[in-house]
C-alpha cells in the first residue's frame, strides 16, 4: 500500500471479495506454500507497507482469505504449511447403524467444504424469530484463516458394529503399549478424529464445534486438545519453539519425493480409499516443566543434541547444519548417542522418517498448581510402524523421558482426499 492510501482502503469487502484480488507471495510471512496449497483471494503482496497499523491489517486480511484446496488427491492439513492453531478432537460413535454413520460422514464432508471456504454451515440468523441458528456464528465474517479439516478413522471404526471389517487397512490396529507411557483413557483412542488447523483459534474451534453439533445424536466427543504456537515448520516457515524453549521442526519431511516415500499411503494398505491418505498418530505429551526449568543449559542441550538459541546440532554451528553423529569433541561424541536427535534421526534408523506436525498446548494449572502443558505431538506417516519403531527407541532410552509423560494417544487412518464436490468420505463403505 502506498503512503497516500488510507489504511481503511483495506476494506473487509475487498478482502472477502476474493475474485480479482492478488495472490499472496509471502506477504507478512504467510506463504502459499507447498503441496498444492493455493491462496484464494489475497492481500496486497505487491504493495509496500510502512505503517505498523497497516501491517497488522494486512496480516489479518491475508489470513482471512488464505485457503487451501478441499478437493484433491490428499486431504489438506498434512502437507499444508502448519497454521498457528490446532483443535484436535477424537469422537466415539453412538450411532448404531451403518446408515447413521453414512449420514454423519456425508454431512461432515459437505460442512467441511463450506467451512474451509470460509462459509457458515447454514443460517446464522434464521428468518423466523423462533428459528434455531444452524451455524453457531462465532466465525461469521472471519474468513478462511487458512482453515484445514483433516478426518481420520480409528481402528475401532472397523470392528463389527457397522459391518466395515472388510474395509480395514492391512495391519491397522491400536498402537502397541510402549515403554515410558502413562496413558490416560480420557485422552486415548476414538472412532473418528478431526484435526482442525487455522491461523485463528476461533475459526478452528468453530469448525469442530459445528461438526460435533450437527452430528450430536450420532457422535460423542471423546477427547480434545487445543494447540497453539505450532511446534513444526514448513519449508518457508521460521522454526517455532516448543515449551521447553527449543526450536522444533528443524529437520522434518519436506518436498514431494519425501512425502511420497514416507507420508502418503498407497497399495500396501490394500484399501483403495487409503490411496493418497496417511496415518495420523496423536500423542498428548505432558511436560514436567518446573523440573525442566531447573535443568542446567549444558544438560538441556545435550538431551536434545542441539543448542537452545540457534538450534544448531552440537556437531555444527547453524540451525540447518546437518548433524554429524560421528563428530567427536575431546574424545567424546559431540552429539550424545542417547540424545533425542541421535535416537530418532533417519541416518540412525534405516532411513525412517515421519512428518511431525505438532502444537504446544496448555490446560492451565493442575490441582497442585503446576503447569499443565506440553506438546500435542502429531505425526503423519505411510505406516504407523514408522512412528512405533522411533517411539520404542525413545521410550526406552531418551534422556528427555525424565521430563515428559505420554498421557494421550491415538492412531487414525486418514483417507485420501475427496475428488470433487458431491463426493463424501466413506462413500465406498456403503455402496
Ligand atoms: C515432548 C516431546 C518431544 C519434544 C519436546 C521434542 C523435541 C524435539 C526437538 C527440539 C527436536 C530437534 C529439532 C528438529 O529437528 O525438529 C526434535 C527432533 C525430532 N523429533 Fe522430537 N520431540 C518430542 C517427541 C518426539 C516423539 C514422540 C517423536 C517420535 C516418536 C519425535 C521425533 C523426532 C524426530 C524424527 C526428530 C528429527 C530428528 C532429526 O532428524 O534430526 N519427537 N524433537
UniProtKB/TrEMBL annotation:
Co-factor(s): heme b
Keyword Signal: yes
Protein's recorded name: Deferrochelatase
Domain of life assignment: Bacteria
Catalysed reaction equations from the record: heme b + 2 H(+) = protoporphyrin IX + Fe(2+)
Cofactor annotation comment: Binds 1 heme b (iron(II)-protoporphyrin IX) group non-covalently per subunit.
Gene Ontology molecular function terms on file: ferrochelatase activity; heme binding; metal ion binding; peroxidase activity
The organism of origin for this protein: Arthrobacter alpinus
Keyword Transmembrane helix among UniProt keywords: no
Keywords tagged on the record: Heme, Iron, Lyase, Metal-binding, Oxidoreductase, Peroxidase, Signal
NCBIfam families linked to this entry: Dyp_perox_fam, tat_substr_1
Amino acid at each position: 500500500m502506498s503512503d497516500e492510501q488510507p489504511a481503511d482502503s483495506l476494506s473487509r469487502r475487498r478482502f472477502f471479495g476474493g475474485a480479482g484480488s492478488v495472490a499472496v507471495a509471502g506477504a507478512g510471512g504467510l506463504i502459499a506454500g507447498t503441496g498444492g496449497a493455493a491462496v484464494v483471494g489475497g492481500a496486497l503482496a505487491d504493495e509496500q507497507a510502512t505503517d505498523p497499523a497497516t501491517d497488522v491489517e494486512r496480516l489479518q486480511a491475508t489470513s482471512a482469505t488464505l485457503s487451501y484446496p478441499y478437493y484433491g488427491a490428499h486431504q489438506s492439513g498434512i502437507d499444508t504449511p502448519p497454521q498457528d492453531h490446532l483443535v484436535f478432537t477424537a469422537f466415539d460413535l453412538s450411532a448404531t447403524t451403518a446408515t447413521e454413520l453414512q449420514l454423519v460422514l456425508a454431512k461432515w464432508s459437505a460442512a467441511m467444504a463450506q467451512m474451509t471456504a470460509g462459509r457458515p454451515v447454514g443460517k446464522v440468523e434464521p428468518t423466523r424469530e423462533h428459528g434455531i441458528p444452524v451455524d453457531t456464528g462465532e466465525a461469521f465474517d472471519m474468513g478462511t484463516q487458512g482453515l484445514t479439516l483433516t478426518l481420520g478413522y480409528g481402528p475401532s471404526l472397523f470392528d463389527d458394529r457397522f459391518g466395515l471389517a472388510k474395509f480395514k487397512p492391512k495391519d491397522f490396529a491400536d498402537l502397541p503399549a510402549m515403554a515410558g507411557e502413562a496413558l490416560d483413557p480420557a485422552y486415548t483412542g476414538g472412532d473418528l478424529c478431526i484435526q482442525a488447523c487455522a491461523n485463528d483459534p476461533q475459526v478452528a474451534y468453530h469448525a469442530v464445534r459445528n461438526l460435533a453439533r450437527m452430528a450430536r445424536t450420532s457422535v460423542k466427543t471423546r477427547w480434545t486438545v487445543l494447540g497453539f504456537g505450532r511446534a513444526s515448520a514448513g519449508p518457508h516457515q521460521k522454526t517455532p519453539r516448543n515449551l521447553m524453549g527449543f526450536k522444533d521442526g528443524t529437520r522434518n519431511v519436506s518436498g514431494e519425493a519425501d512425502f511420497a516415500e514416507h507420508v502418503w499411503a498407497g497399495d500396501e494398505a490394500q484399501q483403495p480409499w487409503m490411496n493418497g491418505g496417511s496415518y495420523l498418530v496423536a500423542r498428548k505429551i505432558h511436560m514436567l516443566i518446573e523440573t525442566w526449568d531447573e535443568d542446567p543449559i549444558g544438560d538441556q542441550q545435550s538431551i536434545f543434541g542441539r543448542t537452545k538459541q540457534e538450534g544448531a546440532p552440537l556437531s555444527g554451528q547453524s540451525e540447518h547444519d546437518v548433524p554429524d553423529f560421528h563428530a567427536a569433541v575431546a574424545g567424546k561424541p559431540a552429539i550424545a548417542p542417547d540424545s533425542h536427535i541421535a535416537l530418532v534421526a533417519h541416518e540412525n534408523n534405516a532411513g525412517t522418517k515421519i512428518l511431525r506436525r505438532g502444537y504446544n498446548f496448555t490446560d492451565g494449572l493442575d490441582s497442585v498448581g503446576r503447569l499443565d502443558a506440553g506438546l500435542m505431538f502429531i505425526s503423519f506417516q505411510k505406516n504407523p510402524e514408522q512412528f512405533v519403531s522411533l517411539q520404542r527407541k525413545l521410550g526406552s532410552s531418551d534422556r528427555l523421558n525424565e521430563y515428559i509423560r505420554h498421557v494421550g494417544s491415538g492412531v487414525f487412518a486418514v483417507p485420501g482426499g475427496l475428488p470433487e464436490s458431491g463426493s463424501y468420505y466413506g462413500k465406498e463403505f456403503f455402496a
